[in-house]
Design brief:
single chain; alpha/beta; 44% helix; globular; binds 4'-phosphopantetheine
Length: 162
């Protein structure tokens, strides 16, 4: 049986913390699908297409692919014949929300397991939200996101100024 995991998220943009989790996940499962939520309500920095491209450019592990989904995560996971959802935990503060989601997903789809992976300690403070805030206010995000992401963020800022 192929052990397949879904690693879902907003990934606006992908960070080094996300990549760390993807790498760990790729060692544990035969196949990993990084799944970007298409959320019409939020105003993202990057379109879904841009996010897919940036992740594809960054992810080098052979067993990792990138997908998108709308609606319930558990429906997508069943459709993809995945056995597990993977979520990264950075600090205790993440746990309450993650536990709530994991238990709701289990209620909806009892066969599907949620697996929590801890990011490396160097990444525990990184979030897409903070990356965007620091970048917008002129701080350095070097080493916190992949180089192609930093480049795209600079291009976006330049386009906005032009
Ligand atoms: O990167 P994020 O924003 O923390 O990811 C959150 C995500 C996409 C995993 C979560 O919002 C989600 O699964 N949304 C899909 C809708 C859904 O299934 N909701 C019920 C969750 S219990």
């Amino acid at each position: 049986m192929t052990r397949r995991a879904i690693y879902p998220g907003t990934f606006d943009p992908i960070t080094m913390g996300h990549l760390d989790i993807i790498e760990r996940c790729s060692r544990l499962f035969d196949e990993v699908i990084v799944a970007i939520l298409v959320n019409m309500e939020k105003e993202p920095m990057f379109s879904v297409e841009e996010r897919v491209k940036m992740i594809q450019e960054t992810v080098t592990w052979r067993n990792v692919t990138v997908g998108t989904f709308e609606g319930l995560l558990v429906h997508y996971a069943v459709e993809q014949e995945a056995q597990a959802i993977v979520r990264g935990i950075r600090a205790v503060s993440d746990y309450e929300y993650e536990l709530q989601m994991a238990l709701m997903n289990r209620k909806l789809e009892p066969e599907l397991e949620t697996v929590f992976l801890m990011a490396g300690d160097g990444y525990s403070y990184i979030s897409s939200r903070l990356i965007k805030e620091v970048f917008k206010l002129g701080g350095s995000i070097n080493g916190l996101v992949p180089e192609n992401v930093e480049q795209r963020m600079r291009e976006k800022a330049d386009d906005a100024e032009a």
